[in-house]
């Protein structure tokens, strides 16, 4: 999937993304934070404005689209880039993980991998900023922050491949 990016002097940036069937989604991000969404029926066609979103609403919609509130497809691993080099990732804890039953403290995850656990989803509950006494339980989803290397190290710990 290609994303065409272009500067709009005095306005902001324009992104064009082919969405299938020859159609293109055009997103204009204004310097003010306002976002405009347009659609083009072909690469060379004029665009039709669909909607305009203020910055805060655009960020909330973006968060929903990336799956931060709900993951429609069952996945063991979801990745989001927060800043250059920093990832926010979701990892499902499998029954056969060697750290099931250990606490964050006893597993020494921070020192072993370099990641920070920011939340745990357990059934319908979310434990934000979990303490050192929280345990790894099969079926949990751990939300972590770290660089790519640290995230890979955490994945290796989960699978016993470290």
Explain the overall architecture.
The protein has 162 residues and is of the alpha+beta class. It folds into two domains: 64 residues; 83 residues, Regulator of K+ conductance, C-terminal domain (Alpha-Beta Plaits). Helices cover 20% and strands 41% of the residues. Strands 1-2-3-4-5 form a five-stranded antiparallel sheet. The chain is elongated. The protein starts with a strand and ends with a helix.
The CATH superfamily of the largest domain bears the name: Regulator of K+ conductance, C-terminal domain
Share in helix: 10-25%
Tell me the CATH architecture of the largest domain: 2-Layer Sandwich
The largest sheet is: 5 strands, antiparallel
Radius of gyration: 20 Å
Q: Would you identify the regions where 5 or more consecutive residues have pLDDT less than 50?
A: none
Query: Class of the largest domain, according to the CATH hierarchy?
Result: Alpha Beta
Task: Output the strand order for the largest sheet.
Answer: 1-2-3-4-5
Total domains, how many? 2
Instruction: Write down the overall geometry.
Output: elongated
Q: Approximately how much beta-strand content do the residues carry?
A: 35-45%
Number of helices: 4
Overall pLDDT metric:
86
Spell the H/E element sequence. EEEEEHEEHHEEEH
Structural class: alpha+beta
What is the first-to-last residue Cα distance? Answer: 33 Å
Number of E-state strands = 10
Overview in brief:
Helix content is 20%, strand content 41%.
Please describe the structure with a list of short key phrases separated by commas or semicolons.
2 domains, five-stranded antiparallel sheet, Alpha-Beta Plaits, 10 strands, about 20% helix, alpha+beta, about 160 residues
